């Protein structure tokens, strides 16, 4: 059965404690009677209240406050898990500290203690554990090889207490008690169980384990500050050298940049000049383009007018061609009629010629007969007939020449021919 106070401190201050079961065993030689001792509550040194040991008829044993009013003072007090964990911390020979915002540090512990006293202006405070250590990192130098440890199990260090610790400038780390390090025999603890538990915690922390915590108070030792000053001086020298080198480099870059700016400025001026020339050229070309567009428009208008005139000329040419065709037909008909008439006249002339010749011969062989004095028509002589026949074609040729001149010098059959060719049709 779980009991509320299974252990108590032996003294008002200090780490010595005793369990209720141990005291029950110690009372056996005395017939189970009380040893008449005063025990102290499970609180930090200086904040403990008197208690007494109780053994019930059932054998259950525990501690209780002598003054019931003290039970409400200082809270429930320290658990056995808390006390055994800080006892183990004080015994380890080395482990790793994983400190939030301060990195990880492997430390070798030279000495340890519990309930380490810290003196304030208005009183005393007892840290859960205290370690003297060395480290390959600068943590030992920074904290002068010491650290106070506060175990956070159920209650963290009060804010006011943290402020007081920081004002003292001592290194204090608050370590969280892991759940797997909690003691499993809070109500039936024995010295053997407690020793085994502490030894197991020590082995775990020393063999690859670590303490994870938070720095609630930092210290910078004089040695650390001196070393920091030396490092800062070296960094300053290096920074000055770097600054000089950077200044030289920047100066060169600045000179190069100035040259580049000058070149770019000249390029800009040249580009502006070329741009102005281009603007002027574009304006001229726009004017020329406008003129060309106007000229093109006029040309299009002329072309349209020419197309219209060509269309009209084509119409006139078609009408003239039709009229010419008609005139050709009429002229051919007239020529045909004239040819027929000419042929008839020629035939008549030839017949008349031969008929006249025969009559003359007959008159020569026939004796003259008395005839009535009648007037016979005088036949035309061959010369007169020939002259007539020659005059008629001449008039016809003149008429044809006149017609050809009126038609532009073209013959009626579409070719430029002589009048003799027309006579032969």
Automatic annotation (TrEMBL):
Biased composition (Basic residues): 389-399
Region Disordered, residue ranges: 363-425
Biased composition (Low complexity): 363-374
Parts forming coiled coils: 215-330
Top-level taxon of origin: Bacteria
Membrane-spanning segments: 335-355
Keyword list, A-Z: Coiled coil, Membrane, Transmembrane, Transmembrane helix
Name of protein: Uncharacterized protein
Organism: Paraburkholderia bryophila
Organism lineage string: Bacteria, Pseudomonadati, Pseudomonadota, Betaproteobacteria, Burkholderiales
């Amino acid at each position: 059965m779980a009991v509320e106070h299974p252990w108590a401190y032996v003294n008002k201050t200090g780490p010595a404690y005793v369990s209720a079961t141990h005291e029950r065993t110690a009372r056996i030689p005395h017939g189970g009677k009380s040893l008449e001792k005063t025990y102290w509550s499970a609180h930090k040194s200086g904040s403990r209240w008197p208690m007494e040991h109780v053994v019930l008829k059932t054998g259950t044993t525990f501690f209780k406050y002598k003054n019931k009013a003290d039970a409400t003072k200082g809270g429930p007090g320290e658990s056995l898990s808390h006390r055994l964990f800080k006892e183990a911390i004080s015994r380890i020979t080395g482990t790793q500290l994983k400190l939030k915002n301060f990195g990880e540090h492997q430390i070798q512990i030279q000495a340890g203690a519990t309930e380490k006293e810290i003196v304030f202006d208005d009183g005393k405070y007892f840290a859960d554990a205290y370690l003297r250590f060395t480290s390959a990192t600068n943590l030992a130098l920074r904290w002068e090889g010491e650290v106070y440890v506060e175990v956070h199990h159920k209650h963290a260090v009060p804010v006011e207490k943290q402020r007081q610790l920081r004002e003292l400038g001592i290194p204090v780390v608050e370590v969280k008690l892991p759940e797997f390090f909690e003691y499993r025999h809070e109500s039936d603890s024995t010295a053997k169980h407690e020793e085994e538990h502490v030894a197991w915690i020590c082995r775990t922390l020393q063999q690859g384990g670590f303490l994870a915590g938070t720095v609630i108070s930092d210290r910078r030792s004089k040695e650390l500050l001196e070393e920091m000053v030396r490092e800062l001086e070296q960094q300053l020298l290096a920074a000055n050298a770097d600054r000089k080198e950077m200044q030289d480099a920047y100066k060169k870059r600045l000179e190069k940049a100035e040259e580049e700016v000058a070149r770019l400025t000249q390029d800009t001026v040249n580009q502006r000049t070329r741009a102005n020339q281009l603007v002027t050229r574009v304006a001229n070309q726009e004017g020329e383009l406008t003129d060309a567009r106007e000229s093109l428009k006029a040309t299009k208008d002329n072309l349209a007018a020419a197309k219209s005139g060509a269309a009209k000329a084509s119409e006139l040419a078609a009408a003239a061609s039709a009229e010419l065709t008609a005139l050709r037909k009429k002229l051919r008909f007239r020529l045909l009629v004239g040819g027929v008439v000419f042929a008839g006249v020629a035939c008549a002339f030839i017949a008349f010629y031969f008929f006249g010749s025969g009559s003359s011969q007959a008159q020569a062989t026939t004796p003259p007969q008395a005839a009535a004095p009648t007037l016979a028509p005088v036949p035309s002589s061959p010369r007169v007939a020939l002259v007539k026949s020659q005059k008629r074609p001449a008039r016809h040729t003149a008429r044809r020449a006149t017609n050809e001149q009126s038609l532009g010098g073209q013959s009626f059959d579409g070719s430029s021919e002589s009048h003799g060719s027309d006579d032969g049709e």
